[in-house]
């Protein structure tokens, strides 16, 4: 049994009296890739912010392993485009970084040739790899990736997911990813947690079982075998605010 790195226990959060997250239970272990999915505004980034300690939960607890070391990859690089900054200097800003690790880390991610490039001229895929390099330089045992393939074309997305999987294989770290896309990420995921205010369902990814609403939302799987689909059948009803209808006798999703 792999070591559990983080457990969310009955996490809840409200903003201005509006419940955003309610009773969230989930965990991530070493060597496990967990993907958090859910519609826009369902609270995925907020849950990540709670894990990072940037946001306090209103209720519940985040239990962290005492040796937990997080490498965080944000959605975007927020840097003033008029500021001259090379990739090397950007990565040298990581607190406590061993500068000798910068080049080997870039090599591992296939972007060693960019070491002297300005960060603001990088393509979407190159930027994501630099952000991944920054997360890895923190020597994490848990990688937290908030929409790691944002702004990357489909081929680049497959490559990035392959890279994330190979990093997991090499380092044995846990990975917590937020994703909107289901097709590409699912083949690289051990556990999927679908949230919409509460945990709608969680479990292993599996091929589509034919739910028409799900296929309408996320499409039909292609022939590419790196593509797998997670089938998710709701047996409960969400109100407009995402809460579960109170007169619904079923409170959980089927897989
Ligand atoms: N500090 C805050 N104060 C008030 N409302 C907030 C705060 N942080 C987040 N929210 C609200 O909580 C909701 C969920 O935001 P969050 O970014 O967690 O969703 P998400 O699932 O990551 O969305 P997306 O898929 O669009 O990135 C949004 O409606 C957002 O406006």
TrEMBL record:
The keyword Cell inner membrane applies. Gene3D superfamilies: P-loop containing nucleotide triphosphate hydrolases. Residues 6-221 form the ABC transporter domain. Keywords: ATP-binding, Cell inner membrane, Cell membrane, Ion transport, Membrane, Nucleotide-binding, Translocase, Transport, Zinc, Zinc transport. PANTHER family: METAL TRANSPORT SYSTEM ATP-BINDING PROTEIN TM_0124-RELATED, ZINC IMPORT ATP-BINDING PROTEIN ZNUC. NCBIfam families: PRK09544.1. This is Zinc transporter. The gene is znuC.
């Amino acid at each position: 049994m792999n070591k559990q790195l983080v457990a969310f226990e009955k996490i809840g959060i409200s903003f201005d009296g509006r419940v955003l997250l309610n009773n969230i239970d989930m965990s991530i272990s070493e060597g496990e890739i967990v993907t958090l999915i859910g519609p826009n505004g369902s609270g995925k980034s907020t849950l990540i912010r709670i894990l990072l300690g940037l946001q306090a939960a209103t209720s519940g607890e985040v239990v962290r392993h005492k040796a937990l070391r997080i490498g965080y990859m944000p959605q975007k690089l927020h840097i003033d485009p008029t500021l001259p900054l090379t990739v090397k200097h950007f990565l040298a800003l990581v607190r406590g970084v061993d500068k000798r690790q910068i080049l080997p880390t870039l090599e591992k991610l296939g972007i060693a040739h960019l070491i002297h490039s300005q960060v603001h001229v990088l393509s979407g895929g190159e930027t994501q790899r630099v952000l991944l390099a920054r997360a890895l330089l923190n020597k994490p045992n848990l990688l937290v990736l908030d929409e790691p393939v944002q702004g990357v074309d489909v081929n680049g997305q497959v490559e990035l997911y392959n890279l994330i999987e190979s990093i997991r294989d090499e380092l044995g770290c846990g990975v917590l990813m937020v994703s909107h896309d289901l097709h590409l990420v699912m083949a690289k995921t051990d556990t999927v947690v679908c949230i919409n205010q509460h945990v709608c369902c969680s479990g292993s990814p599996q091929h589509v079982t034919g739910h028409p609403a799900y296929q309408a939302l996320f499409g039909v799987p292609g022939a590419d075998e790196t593509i797998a689909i997670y089938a998710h059948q709701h047996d409960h009803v969400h109100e407009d605010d995402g809460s579960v209808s109170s007169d619904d006798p079923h409170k959980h999703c089927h897989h």
